[in-house]
Amino acid sequence: MALKALDIYKLLPKKNCKECGDPTCLTFAMKLAGGKADVDLCPYLDDQSKSVLGATTRPPIRLIKIGVGERSFAVGEEFVLYRHDKTFYHPPGILFKVSDTQEPEEITATTIRVRDESFTRIGTELRFNGIAIENASGSPDAFARAVTTVEESADLPLVLISKNTDAFNAALIQVGSYQPLIHAATKQNFREMCALAKKHSCPLVIKAHGLDDLAGLAKDCVTEGVKKLVMDISPQSPGDFITISTAIRQLVITRQSPDLGYPVFLDATHPHLQDAAIALGIVKYASVIITPPLSPASAKAALTLRQNIYTDPQKPIQMNPGLYRVGTPGKDAPVLLTVNFSLTFFTLEGYLESTRIPCFMLIVDTEGLSVLTAVAAGKLNETLVRDSIRKFDVEHEVSHKTLIIPGYSAPLSGRIEEATGWNVMVGPRDAAEIGEYLHEQWKNHES
Ligand code: SF4
Q1: pLDDT at 447 over 70
Q2: Which pLDDT band holds residue 1 (cuts at 50, 70, 90)?
Q3: In this model, does residue 288 exceed pLDDT 60?
Q4: Atom 2 of ligand 1 has which residue's CA nearest to it?
Q5: What is the average pLDDT across 238-256?
Q6: For 322-446, CATH number?
Q7: Residue 422 class from Cβ within 10 Å (0-12 exposed, 13-18 middle, 19+ buried)?
Q8: Distance from Cα 261 to the centre of ligand 1, integer Å
Q9: How far is the CA of 391 from the centre of ligand 1 (A)?
Q10: 28 lines ligand 1 (CB under 6 A)
Q11: Is the CB of 44 inside a 6 Å radius of any atom of ligand 1?
Q12: What digits encode the pLDDT tens for the residues 179-192?
């Protein structure tokens, strides 16, 4: 069980010496309780207290970084079983798989796709994370060649998959310093694989079926000096994956099985069930997912699902307040006011673009609330509108003083006119009707 801050405080030395970076032992205890500090930061803890606190205050799932540089990603360090309990922090890395039996041109094409492809959704750029290279040939030379082909095309995180330690040696000479994830240590080969992982500072996948075998293998690797582990639970089917990965998450979150506290790996190359396997992996606790290159439709679905699951449910996705342009608006362009809830912004922006009428969008800070909620909560009010017009210098951008407000904020129209001195037009409630509204009401208003 996790300890509360006061229980932790009782175990601290109470010197208030600040050497941990916190002003008092109590503030350090509070950070430890929230999983936001490491027990090793206090130099005065005796071994017994350190071991008790370490077991109860470290994040239940270890944070593992894969790759180096701009595209590297971290997985693990999750604290809850259900997203609505708090949030999930580290989205799974999804990597496209290639084989060293493929032609170099094919490998290069997949690598370049992962390097360059991105989708923008609700203002966020969504991308795949890297390349998994499989030593299907069994040949060290072919593996090294495939790895070099990928490495020459892009600086991406890698997963190296082989059953042959000679092949790993050949490949890691090329890319060991990029800290690829290497797959996999088993009960039979873990000493050799741990030696490789230590030599190149690489994270290591351990592979076993059954929770006891996984926990035992993890302990063996830690004893060998390798702590950066990811677990391949060797599922027989997507359903089997969910059963095992959910059991692991429950056991580690409740700290019943700290030896299983590592991110989980999923090979989603299941014939006919690839899309389903990826979706289940994203939802149910996979942290590294490898898949053959996806069709454009499946790619967008996977990235969208991942984005949805890994946004904080307690924080609406927000835009920065400001004056945004749609097209190239002139001095006579309409100014439309709305809130900084991202979904509202992008929905309205899409409809405005399709009207082909250049305009300004004045986005005000309602802390990410939608129009209706912001009006009801008093977050959208005449003072905010007045201050936003001033702050974003709207009067210098246009030669008129007419503001179109959302239909759901109609009750505020009089107060906004009084506070701002602007003429207020009430727009439609449904953003889909904004084109018709601008073509009819705005054009009539101009003439
Ligand atoms: S270093 Fe240890 S003793 Fe000093 S303030 Fe921090 S927790 Fe307290």
Answers
A1: no
A2: low
A3: yes
A4: 42
A5: 93
A6: 3.40.50.11600
A7: buried
A8: 27
A9: 45
A10: yes
A11: yes
A12: 999 999 999 999 99
Please identify, by atom number, the ligand 1 atom nearest to the C-alpha of residue 16.
5
d(CA 107, CA 158): 13
Residue pointed to by tokens 């010496």 = 17
Pocket-testing residue among 11, 15, 32, 41, ligand 1, by greatest number of atoms within 8 A of Cβ = 15
- 17 Cβ closer than 6 Å to some ligand 1 atom: yes
- What is d(CA 408, CA 415) in angstroms, rounded to the nearest whole number? 15
Instruction: For the chain, report the end-to-end CA distance as a whole number of angstroms.
Output: 71
Q: How big is the chain, counted in residues?
A: 447
CA-based R_g, the chain, Å = 27
Q: Which residue lies with its CA nearest to atom 3 of ligand 1?
A: 15
List CB contacts of 5: < 8 A, sequence separation 6 or more.
26, 29, 30, 32, 33
Alpha carbons within 13 angstroms on the beta-carbon side of residue 127 total 18
User: Looking up tokens 């300004």, which residue turns up?
Assistant: 360
User: Among all chains, which residue has been given the structure tokens 């580690």?
Assistant: 252
* Residue 191 near residue 224, CB atoms below 8 Å: yes
Query: pLDDT tens digits for 63-74?
Result: 999 999 999 999
Instruction: Report the CATH architecture of 5-57.
Output: Orthogonal Bundle (1.10)
What is the 8-class DSSP label of residue 37?
S
Q: What's the average model confidence in pLDDT over 413-434?
A: 96
Say which residues have a Cβ less than 8 Å from residue 389's Cβ, sequence separation at least 6.
362, 395, 403, 420, 422
- In the chain, where are the structural domains located? 5-57, 64-309, 322-446
CA-nearest residue for atom 6, ligand 1, is 20
Give 375's contacts (C-beta < 8 A, 6+ positions apart): 408, 409, 411, 412
| Fold classification of 64-309 (topology level) | TIM Barrel (3.20.20)
Q: How far apart are CA 167 and CA 141, in angstroms?
A: 7
Q: Determine whether the shortest distance from the Cβ of 15 to ligand 1 is under 6 A.
A: yes
Same fold, 5-57 and 64-309: no
Share of the chain above pLDDT 70, in %: 99
Tens digit of each residue's pLDDT (9 = 90 or more) over 33-84: 877 788 889 999 998 888 888 777 778 899 999 999 999 999 999 989 998 8
pLDDT for 170 equals: 96
Protein residue with least CA distance to atom 8, ligand 1: 25
